[in-house]
Design goal:
The protein contains 8 helices and 6 strands. The chain has about 240 residues and is an alpha+beta fold.
């Protein structure tokens, strides 16, 4: 379900799916129908302070997206380690700290959101995706502190969604920062290749096939990372 509100003309469009298509699918439908320059999204479970929306809006002339940074976390304690790991990995992807990866209260430019439309999943992770996409593409993002209330009803997030988020982050890595992702892997592989080479020379007096394979794999990963980065940059330009 999505509500599209046009304040300039003072009307509300109520959108409802024939059946459950997912969180992201509903937001994408709202994006398609909305006509305004700016989009405001929030959850309907009572967790976000709607009265803080004007505080977020006042930063819109300067930023492409303004996000409500939750000051308290009412999620189950078992989710905290997973959320911490995801946030750290995501921060590494974009090269800067992400205070709140998937806050559901945010204001953003519609044209910026539509630029990454094909990347948004139909289920969970819409907010995580747009956060990573904007930060990876050097759009300006502002975080504003907000309270976070106890949820009305139960959460649809399940433990296995951790792997869904990991999959998302890997995809975003490859899409926006392939060099940043593949270079460390290639570096580690190269070190292993050199170590194996030195071991072979010391133990048997010649370089074995495994050492050659590992070293060439590292070289291949470096080339793949650079070529992918060049292709992505050329497509953006």
């Amino acid at each position: 379900m999505a509500l599209v509100i046009n304040l300039a003309k003072c009307y509300i469009v109520y959108l409802e799916n024939a059946y459950n298509l997912g969180y992201g699918a509903s937001l994408k439908k709202g994006l398609r129908v909305a006509k305004g320059k700016w989009i405001i999204i929030t959850d309907a479970d009572g967790t976000y302070p709607i009265d803080k929306i004007p505080e977020l809006i006042k930063h819109t002339p300067k930023y492409d997206m303004v996000v409500g940074k939750r000051q308290t976390d009412n999620d189950h304690l078992g989710r905290c380690p997973a959320k911490y790991i995801l946030k750290k990995i995501a921060s590494f992807v974009v090269g800067r700290n992400i205070p709140d990866l998937n806050s559901g209260l945010r204001v953003f430019r519609r044209d910026v959101a539509m630029e990454f439309y094909s990347l948004y999943p139909s289920g969970f992770s819409f907010t995580s995706t747009i956060t990573l996409a904007c930060m990876s593409s050097d759009y300006t993002v502002k975080y504003v502190d907000i309270p976070y209330y106890k949820r009305v009803g139960s959460s649809g997030i399940r433990p296995f969604h951790f792997f869904v988020f990991i999959n998302l982050i890997i995809k975003m890595f490859l899409y926006f920062k392939p060099l940043r992702m593949l270079s460390p892997i290639a570096g580690i592989t190269l070190i292993l290749g050199i170590a194996r080479t030195l071991r072979d020379i010391n133990a048997q007096g010649y370089i074995g096939s495994l050492a050659i394979i590992i070293t060439f794999t590292a070289f291949f990963l470096f080339v793949l990372a650079f070529v992918t980065e060049v292709i992505i940059i050329s497509k953006r330009n």
